[in-house]
Amino acid sequence: xxxxxxxxxxxxxxxxxxxxxxxxxxxxxxxxxxxxxxxxxxxxxxxxxxxxxxxxxxxxxxxxxxxxxxxxxxxxxxxxxxxxxxxxxxxxxxxxxxxxxxxxxxxxxxxxxxxxxxxxxxxxxxxxxxxxxxxxxxxxxxxxxxxxxxxxxxxxxxxxxxxxxxxxxxx
Length: 171
Description:
single chain; 6 helices
Protein backbone atom coordinates (compact mmCIF):
# COMPACT_ATOMS: atom_id res chain seq x y z
CA UNK A 1 0.00 0.00 0.00
CA UNK A 2 2.78 2.43 0.97
CA UNK A 3 4.77 1.48 -2.12
CA UNK A 4 1.82 2.31 -4.39
CA UNK A 5 1.38 5.65 -2.59
CA UNK A 6 5.09 6.44 -3.11
CA UNK A 7 4.83 5.54 -6.79
CA UNK A 8 1.85 7.90 -7.25
CA UNK A 9 3.78 10.63 -5.42
CA UNK A 10 6.78 10.19 -7.73
CA UNK A 11 4.59 10.24 -10.84
CA UNK A 12 2.81 13.37 -9.61
CA UNK A 13 6.17 15.06 -8.98
CA UNK A 14 7.41 14.18 -12.46
CA UNK A 15 4.24 15.59 -14.03
CA UNK A 16 4.49 18.84 -12.01
CA UNK A 17 8.17 19.26 -12.93
CA UNK A 18 7.38 18.66 -16.61
CA UNK A 19 4.55 21.22 -16.49
CA UNK A 20 6.90 23.70 -14.79
CA UNK A 21 9.58 23.17 -17.44
CA UNK A 22 7.03 23.57 -20.23
CA UNK A 23 5.73 26.79 -18.67
CA UNK A 24 9.28 28.15 -18.36
CA UNK A 25 9.71 27.41 -22.07
CA UNK A 26 6.41 29.16 -22.89
CA UNK A 27 7.56 32.30 -21.07
CA UNK A 28 10.91 32.14 -22.86
CA UNK A 29 9.21 31.77 -26.25
CA UNK A 30 6.87 34.72 -25.62
CA UNK A 31 9.90 36.81 -24.66
CA UNK A 32 11.67 35.76 -27.85
CA UNK A 33 9.08 37.36 -30.11
CA UNK A 34 10.30 40.58 -31.73
CA UNK A 35 8.38 43.78 -31.13
CA UNK A 36 6.08 43.49 -34.17
CA UNK A 37 4.99 39.92 -33.28
CA UNK A 38 4.51 40.90 -29.64
CA UNK A 39 2.33 43.83 -30.74
CA UNK A 40 0.32 41.50 -33.00
CA UNK A 41 -0.33 39.15 -30.09
CA UNK A 42 -1.45 42.03 -27.88
CA UNK A 43 -3.91 43.13 -30.58
CA UNK A 44 -5.24 39.56 -30.78
CA UNK A 45 -5.95 39.66 -27.04
CA UNK A 46 -7.65 43.06 -27.39
CA UNK A 47 -9.76 41.70 -30.26
CA UNK A 48 -10.70 38.68 -28.13
CA UNK A 49 -11.75 41.00 -25.28
CA UNK A 50 -13.82 43.03 -27.75
CA UNK A 51 -15.56 39.89 -28.97
CA UNK A 52 -15.99 38.34 -25.54
CA UNK A 53 -17.43 41.44 -23.87
CA UNK A 54 -18.99 43.16 -26.91
CA UNK A 55 -16.59 46.09 -26.61
CA UNK A 56 -14.83 48.28 -29.15
CA UNK A 57 -11.59 49.09 -27.34
CA UNK A 58 -9.57 49.94 -30.44
CA UNK A 59 -11.62 52.74 -31.96
CA UNK A 60 -13.85 55.67 -31.17
CA UNK A 61 -13.51 59.03 -29.51
CA UNK A 62 -11.71 57.75 -26.42
CA UNK A 63 -8.85 56.41 -28.54
CA UNK A 64 -8.49 59.58 -30.60
CA UNK A 65 -8.75 62.04 -27.73
CA UNK A 66 -7.23 60.23 -24.78
CA UNK A 67 -4.94 57.55 -26.21
CA UNK A 68 -7.17 54.86 -24.70
CA UNK A 69 -5.72 52.16 -26.96
CA UNK A 70 -2.27 52.70 -25.50
CA UNK A 71 -3.74 52.27 -22.01
CA UNK A 72 -5.49 49.04 -23.02
CA UNK A 73 -2.29 47.85 -24.70
CA UNK A 74 -0.32 48.58 -21.52
CA UNK A 75 -2.94 46.85 -19.35
CA UNK A 76 -3.01 43.75 -21.58
CA UNK A 77 0.79 43.47 -21.66
CA UNK A 78 1.25 43.91 -17.92
CA UNK A 79 -1.64 41.57 -17.16
CA UNK A 80 0.07 38.97 -19.33
CA UNK A 81 3.24 39.35 -17.25
CA UNK A 82 1.28 38.97 -14.02
CA UNK A 83 -0.68 35.93 -15.26
CA UNK A 84 2.40 34.18 -16.70
CA UNK A 85 4.21 34.43 -13.38
CA UNK A 86 1.10 33.69 -11.33
CA UNK A 87 0.92 30.34 -13.13
CA UNK A 88 4.67 29.87 -12.70
CA UNK A 89 4.32 30.64 -8.98
CA UNK A 90 1.69 27.92 -8.54
CA UNK A 91 3.77 25.41 -10.50
CA UNK A 92 6.96 26.24 -8.58
CA UNK A 93 5.17 26.02 -5.24
CA UNK A 94 3.97 22.55 -6.19
CA UNK A 95 7.33 21.53 -7.68
CA UNK A 96 9.29 22.52 -4.60
CA UNK A 97 7.02 20.79 -2.09
CA UNK A 98 9.53 18.01 -1.35
CA UNK A 99 12.26 20.54 -0.56
CA UNK A 100 10.47 21.16 2.72
CA UNK A 101 12.18 18.03 4.05
CA UNK A 102 15.52 19.87 3.84
CA UNK A 103 14.10 22.70 5.92
CA UNK A 104 12.37 20.71 8.66
CA UNK A 105 9.11 20.54 6.72
CA UNK A 106 8.43 24.25 6.94
CA UNK A 107 5.90 25.36 4.35
CA UNK A 108 7.34 28.89 4.49
CA UNK A 109 10.65 27.67 3.07
CA UNK A 110 8.80 26.08 0.16
CA UNK A 111 7.03 29.39 -0.49
CA UNK A 112 10.19 31.48 -0.27
CA UNK A 113 12.11 29.16 -2.61
CA UNK A 114 9.25 29.25 -5.14
CA UNK A 115 9.06 33.07 -5.10
CA UNK A 116 12.85 33.46 -5.29
CA UNK A 117 13.00 31.10 -8.25
CA UNK A 118 10.26 33.07 -10.03
CA UNK A 119 11.97 36.39 -9.28
CA UNK A 120 15.32 35.13 -10.60
CA UNK A 121 13.62 33.78 -13.72
CA UNK A 122 11.87 37.16 -14.18
CA UNK A 123 15.24 38.93 -14.06
CA UNK A 124 16.73 36.47 -16.56
CA UNK A 125 13.67 36.91 -18.79
CA UNK A 126 14.13 40.69 -18.89
CA UNK A 127 17.85 40.27 -19.63
CA UNK A 128 16.88 37.88 -22.44
CA UNK A 129 14.60 40.54 -23.92
CA UNK A 130 17.57 42.92 -24.21
CA UNK A 131 18.78 40.69 -27.05
CA UNK A 132 15.45 40.49 -28.90
CA UNK A 133 14.79 42.91 -31.77
CA UNK A 134 12.63 45.84 -30.66
CA UNK A 135 12.32 44.57 -27.07
CA UNK A 136 13.93 45.84 -23.91
CA UNK A 137 14.32 44.76 -20.31
CA UNK A 138 12.33 46.58 -17.67
CA UNK A 139 12.65 46.55 -13.88
CA UNK A 140 8.92 47.31 -13.63
CA UNK A 141 8.17 44.03 -15.43
CA UNK A 142 10.34 42.11 -12.95
CA UNK A 143 8.29 43.70 -10.16
CA UNK A 144 4.98 42.78 -11.86
CA UNK A 145 6.21 39.23 -12.52
CA UNK A 146 7.34 38.80 -8.93
CA UNK A 147 4.04 40.18 -7.63
CA UNK A 148 2.20 37.60 -9.75
CA UNK A 149 4.24 34.78 -8.21
CA UNK A 150 3.90 36.17 -4.67
CA UNK A 151 0.11 36.37 -4.97
CA UNK A 152 0.01 32.83 -6.41
CA UNK A 153 2.16 31.41 -3.60
CA UNK A 154 0.11 33.20 -0.95
CA UNK A 155 -3.06 31.70 -2.42
CA UNK A 156 -1.38 28.26 -2.45
CA UNK A 157 -0.45 28.69 1.22
CA UNK A 158 -4.02 29.70 2.02
CA UNK A 159 -5.40 26.65 0.18
CA UNK A 160 -2.97 24.32 1.99
CA UNK A 161 -3.76 25.90 5.36
CA UNK A 162 -7.53 25.69 4.74
CA UNK A 163 -7.31 22.07 3.58
CA UNK A 164 -5.26 21.16 6.64
CA UNK A 165 -7.76 22.87 8.93
CA UNK A 166 -10.68 21.05 7.25
CA UNK A 167 -8.91 17.69 7.62
CA UNK A 168 -8.40 18.33 11.31
CA UNK A 169 -12.10 19.06 11.80
CA UNK A 170 -13.06 15.83 10.00
CA UNK A 171 -10.74 13.65 12.09
